[in-house]
Every structure is written in C-alpha cells, then in structure tokens.
C-alpha cells in the first residue's frame, strides 16, 4: 500500500513538473511579482506589436486578391484594406495606451532596460509615423474616380516614395518589436509560458509568411485595384517592394486556378 502511494505521488510530481516549469519565472525564481501598470503595459504592447500590427501587415501583403475572387473581372476588393486599417489603428491605439501607462514610472537603469526603452520609443514613433504617412499618401484616382488623375493611379513620385517608406518601415518595425518584447519579458522576469506561447506564435507567423510568399500571393496593389492592362500608367512602371508579383490573367489562372 505504501509503495503504491509513493508511486502515485511520484507519477503526480512527474506530471506536474512541466506545468511547474512553465509557470515559473524565466529566472527560475520561486515567486513572480510586478506592478499592475507594468503588467498592463506589457499586455497592451504585446497585443499591439505582437498580434494586431503583424496581422494587419499580413492582410495587406497577401490578401489584396482573396481566394475565390474572379480576378481580373472582379477588381478592387477592399476586404484587405478594411482589415489592414482596422488592425493597424487598433494596434497603434493599444501601443499608445501601453506607453501612457508606463509614462514616467520606469525606474530601472540597467543596460537591458535602457535598450528596451529606446526600442520602445522608436517603435511608438514608427507606429505614429505609419498612421500619419497613410493619411498623406495622396489621392487615388483611376477610372472609377470622377477625378481620374490621382497619385496612386498615376504612380507619382509622391506615391512611389510613400509605398517604399510605408512598406520598409512597417516590416522593419515588426522585426524590431520581437527584440523589444523579448527584452521586456526578460526585464519583467515573466513566466516561461508567456515566452513559449510568443515563440510559437512568431514561428507560426513566419511559416505562414513564407508559404504565402512562395505561392506568389504577394500581388501588386496596383494590379489588384485596376487590373493588368498596360493602358493604366502604373502598370508601365516597376512594382514597388520586395517580392511583389504581377500577373497576366492567364498566369494568374495557371497558378491559382479558376474562382
């Protein structure tokens, strides 16, 4: 009887060990205590930069033409635009609230804390700059616009400069946010399960990105809106951005099939 109880206790301890390890702080300390403002600052920043903003960027890069859309007969599907704008605004709002919670309350002066603060300020400035840049991107124009002429339809220097800056700054900021969040987890001595969940999330994001990119889903915004005809002035200029694809109707159907 005693041996059975000891064996059951040992089995229970072995089963509980992984959970105890996950619940323990990164440093291995017995307890984990942080101020409420620190906890909410971290939650909001992870929500903004770890979830919403990357998902918004993913929607803009790979879903300008959605599965089942009969392109180029069906043009300018704005689902990606609404998703991108909603998630970017929500992400920047969460970021701003997170900054407000931490304003003037940080007291640590170690090297990691200083780097985290510098990166955090850089990300906040980048986030606000992306919103401001989007509002200054210029007019749309095109055959469906009564004005016809527009920065986007004509692909003016202003529009080309906006696209280069917006895409480059956006993806660079997302890459730097991973480093910033990792530093934040270490500074707060967060529970290990948080680091594990975030690592799995980022790995899944990277895999999805690579799969969609390899499948050729990164389609030129100009073609998604106005089609591939050479009569449109923007189609007579190179596509803007790394890995952006253009298609003829035949090439599109050969790769993705009929809707």
Describe the protein's architecture and organization.
The chain has helices spanning 2-23, 36-62, 79-102, 111-135, 151-154, 157-188, 192-214, 221-226, 249-256. By secondary structure, it is an all-alpha fold. It has a domain at 35-59 and 78-101 and 110-214. Helix 2 (36-62) packs antiparallel against helix 3, helix 2 runs parallel beside helix 7 (192-214) and helix 3 crosses helix 4 (111-135). The model is unreliable at 5-15 (pLDDT under 50).
Assembly of the depicted chains: single chain
Gyration radius from CA atoms, angstroms: 24 Å
Low-confidence segments: 5-15
Integer average pLDDT = 90
Major sheet, described briefly?
Answer: none
Total strands: the figure is 0
Task: Give the H and E element order.
Answer: HHHHHHHHH
Q: Judging from the principal axes of the Cα atoms, what is the shape? A: elongated
Portion in strands: under 5%
How far is the N terminus from the C terminus?
A: 68 Å
Structural class: mainly alpha
Question: How much helicity do the residues have?
Answer: 55-70%
Give the topology.
Elements: H1 2-23, H2 36-62, H3 79-102, H4 111-135, H5 151-154, H6 157-188, H7 192-214, H8 221-226, H9 249-256
């Amino acid at each position: 009887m005693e041996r059975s109880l000891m064996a059951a206790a040992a089995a229970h301890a072995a089963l509980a060990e992984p959970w105890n390890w996950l619940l323990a702080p990164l440093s291995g300390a017995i307890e984990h205590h942080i101020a409420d403002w620190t906890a909410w600052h971290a939650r909001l920043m992870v929500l903004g930069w770890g979830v919403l903003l990357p998902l918004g960027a993913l929607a803009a890069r790979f879903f300008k033409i959605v599965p089942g859309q009969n392109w180029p007969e069906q043009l300018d599907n704005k689902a990606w635009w609404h998703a991108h704008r909603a998630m970017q605004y929500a992400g920047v709002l969460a970021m701003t609230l997170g900054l407000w919670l931490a304003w003037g309350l940080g007291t640590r002066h170690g090297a990691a804390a200083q780097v985290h603060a510098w990166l955090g300020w850089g990300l906040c400035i980048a986030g606000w700059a992306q919103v401001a840049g989007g509002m200054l991107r210029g007019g749309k124009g095109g055959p469906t616009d009564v004005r016809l002429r527009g920065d986007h339809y004509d692909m003016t220097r202003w529009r080309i400069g906006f696209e280069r800056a917006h895409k480059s700054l956006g993806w660079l900021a997302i890459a730097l946010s991973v480093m910033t969040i990792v530093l934040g987890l270490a500074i707060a001595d967060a529970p290990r399960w948080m680091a594990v969940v975030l690592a799995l999330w980022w790995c899944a994001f990277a895999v999805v990105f690579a799969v969609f990119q390899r499948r050729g889903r990164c389609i030129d915004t100009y073609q998604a809106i106005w089609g591939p005809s050479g009569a449109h002035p923007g189609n007579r200029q190179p596509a803007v951005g790394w890995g952006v694809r253009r298609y003829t109707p035949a090439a599109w159907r050969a790769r993705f099939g009929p809707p």
